[in-house]
Design a protein that fits this description.
Elements (H helix, E strand, L loop, with lengths): L1 H36 L7 H29 L4 H7 L4 H45 L4 H4 L9 H4 L9
């Protein structure tokens, strides 16, 4: 019984650290998104991403720790390990933490995808501004993929179809 309590306490410790780290990652991703939504998104983006990197490394270390723990216990999933434990307050705590970690992971995936989309939009905006500043003709840059020739070579102006 004592060994079982130690195991469930270790599982709870891992889950608590995961929940804490995931929460910090979420807040950092949200602040990164706020920076990317501002007009001058490039200010502070590097610093914001540098704040996220150690948290992601810590999260990866926690995942390895969890995998090692589960390998020692002979199971592949934390939920299965916890359910196999005897009923009690520690088991209930672990189950609540598993649910919380799963919710945070889902939220982090969503926030990460949103941040990636904002980064891509910022990239496209920067490329557009560079093209404007360097006076690159649009037809040289925005030829459809696989087109044999540019619009200029065909004698068609880029925006004629819209007039």
């Amino acid at each position: 019984m004592m060994k079982q309590n130690e195991s469930i306490r270790e599982a709870i410790s891992i889950l608590q650290e995961q929940a804490e780290t995931l929460g910090l990652c979420l807040s950092r991703y949200r602040s990164l998104q706020a920076l990317l939504r501002e007009k001058q998104a490039w200010h502070g983006v590097a610093e914001a991403t540098k704040e996220i990197e150690p948290l992601l490394a810590r999260l990866a270390a926690l995942v390895k720790r969890q995998q090692g723990f589960l390998a020692d216990k002979g199971t592949a999933r934390m939920t299965r390990f916890v359910v196999q434990q005897g009923a009690g307050s520690l088991r209930d705590t672990a189950l609540r933490l598993i649910k919380r970690v799963a919710e945070l992971e889902t939220a982090l995936r969503r926030e990460s995808a949103d941040a990636q989309m904002l980064l891509e939009n910022s990239h496209h905006f920067a490329v557009f501004n560079i093209n404007v500043m360097t006076a690159v003709k649009a037809n040289e840059t925005y030829v459809p993929p696989g087109a044999a020739e540019t619009e200029h070579a065909r004698g068609v102006k880029m925006f004629d179809a819209n007039v």
